[in-house]
Specification:
Blueprint (H helix, E strand, L loop, with lengths): L2 E4 L3 E4 L4 H25 L2 H5 L2 H12 L3 H17 L4 H14 L4 H6 L3 H16 L3 H22 L1 H5 L7 E2 L5
Antiparallel strand pairs: 1-2, 2-3
Length: 175
């Protein structure tokens, strides 16, 4: 669902609009916030601590403006954290939602140094979970998801006024 074929041209990145982003964020919030509370209450502290290097990698990548490193570490952190809940289909669903929305406005956010505060929220979330504070961890996750959504909107002010983004066309054999 990330690309669509364009006859005699190749492929185009599918268009994402504000409504799509709002819906993806709403679904992620409905899934991830209660799971964070459940995982905080049930996961072994050493399993949570095992994710600390990945959380630190997210911060490092944001600080160094390494978007590929940021995206990969962020994906690994969130999906590995959710995997501690033991529901493979849930992890798969969140992974799909993340794929559909993560690239939106990311370059603009990086250029304006707005990725670093979002990156640091991963360490805050992990600290709360390791401390066993499920309620605070759920609040942190809610804030993180809404923060990320508001950053998307701020990072792409021109796109907010348009119903959809212009898709990119990639010719076969050129990627």
């Amino acid at each position: 669902g990330l690309v669509e074929p364009v006859r005699n041209k190749g492929f185009r990145v599918t268009e994402v609009n504000e409504r799509d982003l709002d819906q993806y964020t709403e679904i992620r919030t409905l899934i991830e916030v209660p799971m964070i509370g459940r995982i905080t209450r049930s996961a072994a502290r050493e399993d949570l601590e095992a994710l600390r290097p990945v959380a630190q990698e997210i911060v490092r990548a944001a600080r160094e403006h390494d978007l590929i490193g940021y995206l990969e570490a962020d994906r690994r952190f969130h999906l590995s954290l959710l995997a501690l809940g033991g529901n493979d289909r849930l992890v798969e669903t969140v992974g799909d939602l993340r794929k559909r929305s993560r690239l939106y406005g990311l370059t603009a956010l990086d250029e304006s140094d707005q990725l670093l505060p979002s990156a640091e929220e991963h360490i805050e979330l992990l600290d709360l979970m390791v401390a066993g504070d499920a309620e605070a961890a759920e609040k942190c996750m809610t804030r993180h998801l809404s923060h990320v959504r508001s950053l998307w909107a701020e990072g792409a002010p021109d796109e907010r006024r348009k119903p959809t983004r212009t898709g990119l066309t990639v010719r076969l054999g050129s990627a």
